[in-house]
Amino acid sequence: MAADAPPSAHRPGIFAWFGYRMPLPELFRLVRAAGFRSVSLWWDPAPTRCATVHGMPALARDAGLYVESAHVPFSRSNALWAADPAVRQPVLEEYLAWLGDCAVHRIPRLVMHVVSGHGPEAPTETGMDSFRQLVRAAEARGVTLALENTRRPDLLSALLAAFPSPRLGLCYDISHDRLWPAEAPGLLWRHGDRLATVHLSDTDGRLDRHWLPGDGVVDWPAFAAALPRGYAGPLMLEVMPYKTPALSAEAFLAEASQRAGRLDALIREHT
């Protein structure tokens, strides 16, 4: 599929790390055979046993998949808010390099977490400066920096309010919003005009389960109705076979594709 095709043409998509270890060419082949048109890449070679992240985009495209985004590691994201430059600067440089990777590999979005765990009690000057530099780099490289809602939607909202750049947007994760909701009126109401991508999975309301849509407590019709009118951007399944460990990768992907297709149709009806 052409890289410049409209985002809605790539739906539905799936996170490339969905719980099955196999060579990436085989993994991407199975994803495309199941009917998915796009992938989000975990920008770390370890889970998929890839020698380097830089080989992943070409492998996905060779299988006929569009690369919607790169999701970067988040374990050190709290360092972006640190007052000590010796702590903050190396991590900031890592994120800046990841933005450069996205530009080199023609990946339109970089998805990142604002914090790991709870993060700082309130926005810090050094943290805001970190994100100011990241937004400027995203603008210079033509990459959209998509901030994913996790435990601190207040910090995410503060960043979106502080930096009204079209290159800074919201990665809305429905399960995360169910687990750690923003204060009313909610993230989609406040920042729907900044929506860059959507992560889909289900949960029991207690932990981030990454279940297939329909296996948990998420109200999917309500979610579809809450999406901004006219939203035609990515819908990415971020799921794992925790409820169905006996399924083969082919069977899991087939079930995921069917559910994603039904959910995509529901969302199109509302938006």
Task: Explain the overall architecture.
The chain is an alpha/beta fold and 271 residues long. It has a single domain (7-270), classed as TIM Barrel (Alpha-Beta Barrel). The protein is 38% helix and 14% strand. The chain has 9 helices and 8 strands. It has helices at residues 24-33, 56-62, 85-104, 125-141, 153-162, 174-179, 187-191, 220-226, 249-270, and strands at 13-15, 38-42, 66-71, 109-113, 144-148, 168-173, 195-200, 235-237. Strands 1-2-3-4-5-6-7-8 form an 8-stranded parallel barrel, surrounded by 4 helices. α1 (24-33) packs parallel to α2 (56-62), α3 packs parallel to α4 and α8 packs across α9. The radius of gyration is 18 Å and the shape is globular. It starts with 12 loop residues before the first strand and ends with a helix. The mean pLDDT is 94.
Question: What is the percent of helical residues?
Answer: 25-40%
The best one-word shape is: globular
CATH class: Alpha Beta
Strand order of the largest sheet: 1-2-3-4-5-6-7-8
* Percentage of residues in DSSP E strands: 5-15%
Succession of helices and strands: EHEHEHEHEHEHHEHEH
Largest sheet: 8 strands, parallel, barrel
Low-confidence stretches: none
- What would you call the structural class? alpha/beta
User: What's the name of the CATH homologous superfamily?
Assistant: Divalent-metal-dependent TIM barrel enzymes
Please outline what is shown here.
38% of the residues lie in helices and 14% in strands.
SSE map:
Blueprint: E1 13-15, H1 24-33, E2 38-42, H2 56-62, E3 66-71, H3 85-104, E4 109-113, H4 125-141, E5 144-148, H5 153-162, E6 168-173, H6 174-179, H7 187-191, E7 195-200, H8 220-226, E8 235-237, H9 249-270
Parallel strand pairs: 1-2, 1-8, 2-3, 3-4, 4-5, 5-6, 6-7, 7-8
Helix pairs in contact: 1-2, 3-4, 8-9
